[in-house]
Task: structure prediction
Amino acid sequence: MTKPKQLSYYALEGIPQIKAGDPLAQIIHAAVKENGLSLQDGDVLILAQKIVSKAEDRLVNLSTVEPSERALELAEFLGKRAELVELILRESNDVVRTRPGTIIVEHKSGFICANAGIDHSNVKGKWGSDEDWVLLLPEDSDASAARIRAELEELSGKRIGVLIIDSHGRAWRNGVLGTTIGASGLPALQDMRGEEDMYHYKLRVTTIATADELAAGGSLMMGQANEGTPVVLARGFPYLLREGNAKELIRNKENDLFR
Amino acid sequence: MTKPKQLSYYALEGIPQIKAGDPLAQIIHAAVKENGLSLQDGDVLILAQKIVSKAEDRLVNLSTVEPSERALELAEFLGKRAELVELILRESNDVVRTRPGTIIVEHKSGFICANAGIDHSNVKGKWGSDEDWVLLLPEDSDASAARIRAELEELSGKRIGVLIIDSHGRAWRNGVLGTTIGASGLPALQDMRGEEDMYHYKLRVTTIATADELAAGGSLMMGQANEGTPVVLARGFPYLLREGNAKELIRNKENDLFR
Result:
């Protein structure tokens, strides 16, 4: 009888609604205990982007946004509100593709996504429910992940990793997939160069997107319909933790055949 | 104290080298037991493409392949062997992008991938190690998944799902990601239309690529360096099983901004 290697995801229950300024690390640390768990060396905490954005007060009221000429024109073409398009442009380095209803951009942090990650769903204004409020991504998700990780390591005394994830569409494939936008404390990419296969050929595929593979399974446990479980604890990540960030996952424009 | 929902992956030890004609379902069923587990309703077995291809005798000796004019020209441009390029073309509906060293195609099954999924690594010829042998993807991975699932359900008496996965590169992002190429018995896409968020807004993101989210975590546990663990048992998939296949995940060309 052999014992298989195991990776487990725990979708933590009982995370409260997050408001601007809430101490996320403390809330998560308490939730881990409340769920009958305790952090161990090598654990990775996977956080939905929205709770990080809310804690960082990234809510914007569209009625306070002044659209530029470019935003007005693009909004007309896209069939979106000009104030929203203005925010998308402000949050982006570059527009990658547009067509009515869809705008794909390079976010200021470097990754490609629709609408610069700005979302209406599960967003409630500061003063009650309001269609005017939208939520921007964290300013710098790698920095957010690093900060939350430092606090969780302080609280727990354990060496952990933190991922911040969002649901991204993909080229060629239907459906959204949980994808890393911020990371700290684990290899986002695992370089396999120099490794040999079973027959001692050198591997040609040199890097595995380990953080994105971990993120996707975590996303599955969060679902999409509500934010009841925006924090997932992953135990059994099969690579050694090291310093790392989501920037590793961003392909240079020059090496990208699909920009 | 609350009990969190849990998703666990078990990387099964002891799967032997697979040869043409091997009874995969029986081998997997035995391995599950050997690893101290038994199949339960709702489990999903995630299989690396290579063991399915090997069982289906998809090894080809390049020296038996006659390259066409087109393959010869393209091989020159790509810097690849003409016999390999010929096989890539035969396995594809369409060439999506090329540049020296890289060819991205629409595989006959509809999904987009490099080299039509043809691989050299962990491939050993029928008669000893030989650089001339390559391994094609299964002819129809959905059909393979359905067949293996039927046999496993027969052996176990349980209602399960089966995924066949391969490591795919992505637009915009570095590293390969475990991706579904064949599926049976589970929702590859989960349609969230009509669901409401916490504030009772209708969700705008309507589908989650549930099979790909599950596949990615399974891939993480297989690694890339060898085929020691080409079968991963996933327990706790958080959606109801239903009939389903990998075709659900393929975006129509007309709806794809990146083809």
